[in-house]
């Protein structure tokens, strides 16, 4: 039926696909309409009306608000498909590290400076032309090439691709941001214009005394006096104009450490600066990638090597930046001095292409670059001693010993990210770690979604990039629950505070899958894979597993189907270094008995594959009806298991430990593993906890790790 729409004329098509576009003046050129028509012919009907391709040439072709949702990749493209297509069209290409490079179709061949300036991401098919900054999808490239072929043209105007027109509101927001960037930049002063005593003071404050004035000048760093912040510019676009600024402030702590705080304009989720890039020559073949602007200053000054800093530090490497790193044959990742930086460098090197990457392993003699400079270390030596990212399939202990040492000497960091709202979970699980699988169960309607939502939100607020797959309740309702938990209040009664909280909430690295209802496991896994690549997702929550079962072949035993699905999630978690939390319904509802690990629906596969098993118990430790408690029945990390009570605050939809004194405290001591022996029942020893302890009634048990 959607094909029939074509018969009703182009205007109708435009109305269907891009109603707002019709109100744009001047009316789109004919070639746009042709492309739009072409695209509609290729598109499945469900994409019509989604407004998939409105926009301005040279600007981002995606709606701003589309960022927080992750669409199902309708037909994920593979590198083989891309190559085959290009060959069929006789388009020459270079096989780069993360991208294929082709001649840009948006430049007249006689004007092409660099003959291969259009970069196609090998994983997603997204492209960017570095000369015109036209961006788009793999379908856009196909459409452009088809049109060129039909019209026998050598090139197309960069304005040919349609995109989302900005709404008035978006336009205003963008203009306000640009004005703000200009205001900050023009009211900040180059450090060379600041009296030397003041510069010294600033350097002391930021602990960059060894960074020379010449280096600060070379990188265009300024001082914004009102907030005593350093200002790092982002120059970009075809005219290398000022696109944004990052403000960095420093605060000293009691133990002589410095805490840095940064703010960006535009907001961090559209801040795509690779600081230092304008200073890197086109012919340079080596670069040092750092996690902060100060580190880049240090590397550049101490080694003379080209260096660029990631815009959001170790939290992500947006694929949109990959084309700008394609020219380098060797990339050294020196992202920081902690385990998080080390893990991030391993993950980012996969995106960059393992073969060309080497990693600086954090350690006593290898702090972050700016600290290494301050300590008078030889940064060149540290870079030379970096290790290749591509790992061999067989290693000896000699190659592992540094990793083992790193784990032993950083036990706190190895234990993962700590919850801010759930100290009891920290006590039992020690933290939230990458690459693990958590299975979470609890009786129907007991509050599983509400609880896991707060647990995930807590981590997300600490920078854990999170993806929600909520198949049971829709994203609006889920986001409402999360926003209420975030604001810790009933926003229904405080609607005037909505924008305040929504603005803050929007800054979280939080994404939602656009699925609802029964889903096919492959589509879900593809989306997860896609989002790990795009947004460096560290935590995926699947609520719940039962919604993946319906699509599978019903003639097959449903336990076998579930086992297959759990195996697939397990594999994904391990291979993608991403934590997966899987909500599974219990086997059967028993009102008067506590659930156990064996109560999880299906075979024993779920609990065997899981690193952690969490059960939301209802009416456990009954002191009043309906009391909930959280029980950890499996913890592969260190074997500690236990249970703690939770009070539910209806107004904020949050959970907290019962107030002190309300319940008697109980503590269960660990049983040494060698006494219990494997498979033996855990013996529980009760102890009175110190009356002063703030902790709620908590039980911790130690059992030998279940395999
Ligand atoms: N501890 C609690 N006490 C009372 N009400 C709660 C509690 N926790 C959650 N609720 C409320 O109960 C309702 C159901 O919660 P939720 O959807 O989180 O349960 P669920 O276990 O995920 O349900 P299902 O089994 O259908 O998936 C929500 O309105 C929620 O606000």
Automatic annotation (TrEMBL):
Pfam families: AAA_25. GO terms for molecular function: 5'-3' DNA helicase activity; ATP binding; hydrolase activity; lipid binding; single-stranded DNA binding. Its EC number is 5.6.2.3. Residues 670-690 have a biased composition (Basic and acidic residues). Keywords: ATP-binding, DNA replication, Helicase, Hydrolase, Isomerase, Lipid-binding, Membrane, Mitochondrion, Mitochondrion inner membrane, Mitochondrion nucleoid, Nucleotide-binding, Transit peptide. InterPro entries: DNA_helicase_DnaB-like_C, P-loop_NTPase, TOPRIM_DnaG/twinkle, Twinkle-like. The keyword Transmembrane helix does not apply. It catalyses: ATP + H2O = ADP + phosphate + H(+). It is a peripheral membrane protein. This is Twinkle mtDNA helicase. It comes from Dissostichus eleginoides. The lineage of its organism: Eukaryota, Metazoa, Chordata, Craniata, Vertebrata.
């Amino acid at each position: 039926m959607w094909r029939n729409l074509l018969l009703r004329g182009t205007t109708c098509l435009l109305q269907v696909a891009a109603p707002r576009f019709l109100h744009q003046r001047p009316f789109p050129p004919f070639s746009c309409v042709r492309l739009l028509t072409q695209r509609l012919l290729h598109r499945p009907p469900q994409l019509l009306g989604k407004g998939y391709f409105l926009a301005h040439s040279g600007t981002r072709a995606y709606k701003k608000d589309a960022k927080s949702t992750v669409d199902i990749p309708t037909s994920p493209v593979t590198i083989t498909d891309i190559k085959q297509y290009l060959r069929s069209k006789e388009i020459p290409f270079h096989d780069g590290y993360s991208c294929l490079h082709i001649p840009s179709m948006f430049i007249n061949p006689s004007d092409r400076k660099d003959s291969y300036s259009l970069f196609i991401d090998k994983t997603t098919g997204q492209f960017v032309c570095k000369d015109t900054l036209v961006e788009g999808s793999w379908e856009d490239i196909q459409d452009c090439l088809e049109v060129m072929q039909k019209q026998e043209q050598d090139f197309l105007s960069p304005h040919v691709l349609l995109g989302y027109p900005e709404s008035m509101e978006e336009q205003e927001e963008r203009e306000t941001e640009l004005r703000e960037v200009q205001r900050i930049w023009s009211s900040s002063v180059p450090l060379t214009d600041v009296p030397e005593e003041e510069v010294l003071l600033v350097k002391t404050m930021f602990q960059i005394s060894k960074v020379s004035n010449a280096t600060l000048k070379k990188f265009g760093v300024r001082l914004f006096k009102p907030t005593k912040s350093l200002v790092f510019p982002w120059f970009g676009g075809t005219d290398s104009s000022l696109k944004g600024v990052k403000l960095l402030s420093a605060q000293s702590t009691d133990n002589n450490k410095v805490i840095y705080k940064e703010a960006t304009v535009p907001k961090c989720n559209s801040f795509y600066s690779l600081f230092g890039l304008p200073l890197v020559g086109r012919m340079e073949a080596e670069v040092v990638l750092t996690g902060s602007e100060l580190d880049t200053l240090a590397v550049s000054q101490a080694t003379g090597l080209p260096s660029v800093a990631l815009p959001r530090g170790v939290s992500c490497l947006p694929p949109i930046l990959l084309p700008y790193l394609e020219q380098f044959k060797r990339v050294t990742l020196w992202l920081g001095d902690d385990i998080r930086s080390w893990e991030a460098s391993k993950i980012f090197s996969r995106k960059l292409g393992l073969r060309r990457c080497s990693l600086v392993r954090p350690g006593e003699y290898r702090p972050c670059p700016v600290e290494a400079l301050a300590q008078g270390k030889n940064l060149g030596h540290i870079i030379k001693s970096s290790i290749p990212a591509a790992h061999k399939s067989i290693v000896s202990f000699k190659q592992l010993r540094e990793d083992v040492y790193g784990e032993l000497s950083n036990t706190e960091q190895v234990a993962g990210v700590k919850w801010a709202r759930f100290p009891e979970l920290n006590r039992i699980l020690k933290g939230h770690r990458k690459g693990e699988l958590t299975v979470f169960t609890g009786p129907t309607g007991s509050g599983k979604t509400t609880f896991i939502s707060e647990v995930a939100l807590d981590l997300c607020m600490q920078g854990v990039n999170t993806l929600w797959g909520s198949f049971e309740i829709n994203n609006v309702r889920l986001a409402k629950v999360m926003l209420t938990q975030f604001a810790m209040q009933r926003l229904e009664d405080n609607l005037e505070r909505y924008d305040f909280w929504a603005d803050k909430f929007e800054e979280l690295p939080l994404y939602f899958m656009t699925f609802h209802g029964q889903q096919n496991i492959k589509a879900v896994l593809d989306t997860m894979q896609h989002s790990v690549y795009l947004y460096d997702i560290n935590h995926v929550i699947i609520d719940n597993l039962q919604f993946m079962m319906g699509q599978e072949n019903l003639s097959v035993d449903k336990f076998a189907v579930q086992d297959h699905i759990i195996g697939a999630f397990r594999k994904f978690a391990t291979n993608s270094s991403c934590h997966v939390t899987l909500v599974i319904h219990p086997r059967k509802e028993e009102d008067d008995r506590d659930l156990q690990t064996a109560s999880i629906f299906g075979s024993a596969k779920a609990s065997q594959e899981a690193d952690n098993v969490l059960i939301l118990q209802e009416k456990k430790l009954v002191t009043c009806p309906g009391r909930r408690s959280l029980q950890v029945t499996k913890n592969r990390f260190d074997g500690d298991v236990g249970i703690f009570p939770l009070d539910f605050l209806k107004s904020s939809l949050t959970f907290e430990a019962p107030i002190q004194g309300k319940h008697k405290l109980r503590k269960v001591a660990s049983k040494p593993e060698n006494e219990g022996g494997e498979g033996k029942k855990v013996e529980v020893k009760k102890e009175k906890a110190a009356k002063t302890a703030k902790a709620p009634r908590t039980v911790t048990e130690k059992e030998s790790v279940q395999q």
